[in-house]
Every structure is written in structure tokens, then in C-alpha cells.
Amino acid sequence: MRKLADKVLSMDRRVIYLLMAAAALLPFVTGPLGLPSRVSPEVKAVYDRIESLPEGSPFLISMDFDPASKPELYPMAEALVRHAFRKNLRIIGMNLWVTGSGMAEKILSDVAEEYGKEYGKDYVYLGWAPGATNVILGLGQDIYKTYPKDYYGNETSGMSVLEGVRTLKDIPFMVDLAAGDPGIETWVVYGKAKSMAGGCTAVIAPGMYAFLNSGQLVGLIGGMRGAAEYELLLKEMGKATVGMDIQSTTHVLILGLILLSNFAFFSTRRRG
Amino acid sequence: MFLRQYVPMAIAFVIGVAFAVQYYVPHPASEGLLTTVNDWLIVVSGFSMVLGLASLMGSHWAKVRRAVPGWGYSLVVFLGILGTLAVGIVSKGKMFAGEGLTLTALGWVYDNMLVPLQGTVFSLLAFFMASATFRTFRARNLEAGLLLTAAFLVMLGHVPLGEYIWDKLLGFLPSKADQVMGWIMNVPNMAAKRGILLGVGLGAIATSLKIIFGIERAYMGEGG
Amino acid sequence: MSPELLGAWVAAGLTLAIFSFLYRDNPFFKFGEHLYIGISVGYSLTLLIFNFMIPKWWTPLFREGRMSLLVPTVLGLLIWTRFFPRFSWLSRWAFAFIVGFGAGITIPRMISNFIFRQVESTAVPLVSRGPGGVSFGWEDLSNFLIAFGVLSVLTYFFFSVEHKGPIRPLARAGVLFLMVSFGASFGYTVMARVSLLFGRMYDLVEYSSRGYGYATLILLGIMVAVFSAQALSKRREGE
Q: Is A203 in Cβ contact with C188 (below 8 Å)?
């Protein structure tokens, strides 16, 4: 028994890698597991806030992430943009992470096409600008000075999508999708958002509960699970919902590994 | 000494005090000043970004020039930079061509090279984490036991299969797995994170004061 | 070959090259890793030029004659003196301006938007007052735990006082709260990393289909063959 436990404990790490790869591939072989997820109050709060906005309200979405967190935040951004277009909100898109620009442009363009929305009237992509803190601060002062031109080089002043908007205070609701710094914290400290929610990678989500509790965030969408919950609320199953199956298999594998290693560890110790 | 040391310290002091005070003066002139200087600094950030990118290129260029072992890989870095810059210029920095959703050359490089490369580099961590968990996650004492229990419960509550297992095995309990996870996140986790955040926030204020009063001079680089 | 098909082969190849690190460090991985650095720098430079330098600096300053942009231009050029060791001390003026501004804007905002708000929502009543008088329920217990947790964690991090006497158990409670939060963070981190793995697996599975010419399978086969040949020749050398 002890020998076996020793063997287990000194297993080559590549065996674990193989097990992980197998667990990640399993749902592709078996097909959807079809297990239901429950919607958490923090995600529901974001959904309800967008639902409560009157048609035509401006809505700012800052996509502050890069390809390293695409599987978590891309579906989240898609779901939010979809929701906003369904509610006929005027979307103002931007991003603070330079290598995320391509994804932000793609999300807005794809979903806009899907809903037949017109650029400049229904949505605008302001793009990326260097100096995140200054950009956030600037938006609280004067959007047209911070972004005199949009991503495509058009003049922002006079765009009908921005009608009635001069600073962040004129935007009733915004969501920041963040993968780190600059992100939600930067917006909370330097932004003058009227009302704000956050969406973020699972790595930084635990820290964001402090802002949720203080009411500085009205809601929080954390990681792929949060994105899947949002897709569930929209009744539009996307990649996050599909991804939850892999989450299930790999999480259960890791839980099993924790139990196995503790069992083996204590069985060698007790007798030794 | 005067120009190299005192002038920058004086600049940091004057600008720092001015913009700390500005916050409490909501006069249009003071707001206008903030808007203007802030806009300047966005432009300056662009210049400093060039500095950062150039110094990275410089270190790889040095490797190529001195032909240190593995210099070929530094050449790959340069090929990547120049190639992307070239397609970027051809595509005028845009992902899509024209009105439709056809990818430009830059869009192609972004979608088929940058996104998979960066995504894969970071997804390696999934494997390392699984292995590290197996090796180090042991309930040796109370602290480790708490850490492990919290991680275990959060992971169970986080995935549908975990919730399913909880319902089957512990369905008789009044709370579901996601509710237990929600409580851990919103109460003990939140309290600890708030403690850390408050510490970090106070630290940022202290550092800012040190900069204004010339105690913290790391921004001056060598000899500061 | 259509751009889409070529893209699938390139993406699958680069993904597998990076994953090959799991077997061991090797030239495929090194190539992918360095290419990643190069492309991300190239992409950042491209965006800097087309979304910033041209529309927000060059055009307004030199075409539209917005002279106020001369100030940041001078500051920016001062930063660039770092490229010339003899004049690099001049960059300190620009950096002093930047960090001075950063420090100035941070102090009041950090206090009012951060410290005050966080403290305010910690200091809440610890009992509920209803029509039936004062009560202490589950919600109140949670509020108490939050207040106690924040206080104990701050005590733990406060090194100016030696952790003995009554401070000791409080700091120790802080450690326990921290452990629970690290555990929670770990659980969340697992989800984050697995999400990335899902993203890559999804693409690899897609690219292994017939429509993409079995790109993943063929490239994986080639890579395995190369590694096997290497291992074999090494073994022969050993003999």
C-alpha cells in the first residue's frame, strides 16, 4: 500500500498533463453533457440593469483585455453587445489594451451586422489610446477631447450615436470587461461613471467582490462561468456555455487529484 | 546637479501639489486645466510607449549583433516585428477591409498568429497548475486545510458537474453548492481582499506623497 | 489555398508548437515564443502609428496647426533623450512631470473613491432593527465577519506593531481569512486557466476536421515523428 502511495506521489508530471488533455478533450468526444447552470445574483444584476435602460440610452463598453483571455471575455463581450443591441441602446465601444483592439473591433462589427445596426448612428468604436489612466480621466472631462476621432479616423463630434454625450456623467450605464490592470479598479478610482458593472477574468474576480459589496459595481460577471450565465439569461447559447463542459471535466479531475494526493500523502505519513 | 536633480524634483512637487489641490476646486478654469494637461499626457504616453518597445527591440538586436547562442530566435523576433509592421502599413492598421467583414492582411496575422500564440502560451498554465496542485495541495495544518477546503468548495460550486455531484451526495443540506460558493466569495474572501486592497490603496497614497516630496526618485533612473 | 485554410494550418501549427513545451523545451516552442513577442510588438507599433501618432498627433499638429500640442511633443522628445546617454538626464524632466501629475491625481481620488468607500461599506450596523425589536440574523453574522475579517487582515499586514499580546490572536485570525481567500482565488484561477485551454482545444478540434485538411492531425503527426526520431538517435548515441 505504501509503495503504491509512494509511486502515486512521485508520478511524472507529464502523466498529469496527459490526464488534463484527456479531460479537456472528453466533452468533444461525448458531446454536450447538458448539465444546467444556475444564475448568480451578481450576474443577474448586470442583466437587469441593462433591461431597465430606456431605448436609445447611451451604453459604454470598455473591452480591456487581450487574446490571452479571449475564451473568457470574448463571449462575455459578445453577450453584452448583443443584449444592448436587442434593447436598441446606443453602444460606445473602446479598449485600453492595445493588443485587444482587433478583438474589440471584431465583436462590435460582427454583432452589429447580425442585428443590422448602422455605424455612427447605433454604435461607435472609439478604439485604443495610450495612457489608460489619462484616457479614463479624460472621458470624465470631455469625450471629444480624449477621442477627437474614432478608430476609423472619423470626427467624433457630431456623430448621432454620441448625441447628448459630453462626459462619462452623460452615460447612464457602463461595463468594463477587464483582464487585469488597467481595468475595473482604474475605472473605479479615476472614472466618473454614473453607474458601472464589471466583467472580468476569473483570476481577478475574487478581488472585485470588494467593489461589488461597496456598491461601486452594480453587478459582476466573473470568468467563463459568468459569461455562460449571461448567455443563459439571453437564451443564446454561445462558446461560454459550450466551454462549461470542459470546466466540469477538468475541475472534477483536479478535485480528484487533490483527494488522491492527500490520501497518498497521509497514508505514507501515518505509517512512516 | 541643479538641472539634473533639483529641477525634476521641483517639477514633480509643483505639478503634484497643483493637481492634488485641483480636485477640490471645481471651477471651470481648474477643470479646463485638468482636461488640457491630461490630454497632453495621453500624447506623451504614446512617446513613452515607443521608448518601451524600442528598448525591447534593442536587447534583441544586441543578441543578433553579438551572435550570442540562440541569436537566431532574436532574429525571429525581428522578423515578427517587421513582418507585422509591413502588413499593418499595407492594411492601414485595420482588421477588416472595406465595409464588409473580410479580413485584411493585418487581421489575418492577428487572428491566425497573435491570438493563437498568446492564447496557447497562457493556456500552458492550466497544465502546470494541475501538476502543482497535485504536488503541493496538502492539508498539513489548519491554514493549509482552510485554503484547501475553500478551494474545494469554490471549485465544486463553480461548475455544473460539481453542482450535480453536490446535489446527489449532499442534497439533504439546506444550501446548494453555488450558494456555499457565493457566501465564501462575498464574505470571508471579500473581507480579506478588502483588507489587502486597503493596504495597497494606502501604499499608493504613501508613494504619491513620497514622489511629491522628493523622497521617492526611482523615476529619475540611474543616479537619481 | 484560401486565406482561411492557410490560417487554420498556421494557427494549428503555432498552437502545437507552443504546446510542445509540455513534452520538453525544444526549438518549435522557442520559435513560437519568439514569434509571439515579435508579432505583439509589431502589432502594438502598428496601432500606435495608425490609431494614435497619425490621427492624434501628426495630423492635428502639422496639418491643422494645433500649436498646444507642442507642449506634449517637447515632453515626448525629452523622453526620447533616453536613446542618447549624453542627454538622457533631460528625460527626468518629462518623467517628473508624468509621475508628479500621476501622484497629484491619485491622492484625492484614491482617498474618496477607494479608501472612504471601502471603509464606509465595512462599518455597517451589526444588528437588524425591525418591528419586532433588535435581532441578529445570518445577514448580520456575515456583516460581523466582514468587519472582523477586514480588521484582522489589516492587523496582520501592520508590521509597525509587534504581533504579541492581544494583537497576536487578531493577526492570526487575519491569516485564516487570507487562507480562505487564497483558496477561493485558487478555485477561480483554475477556471481561468481551463478557459484558455478550452479556447485552444476548441480550435485544434475544429482544425482537425476534413474541411481544414486535417491540419491538426497532420501537424501533430509530424511533430511526434520529429521528437521520436530525435529520441531514437539520442538512444543510439548512448549505446
A: yes
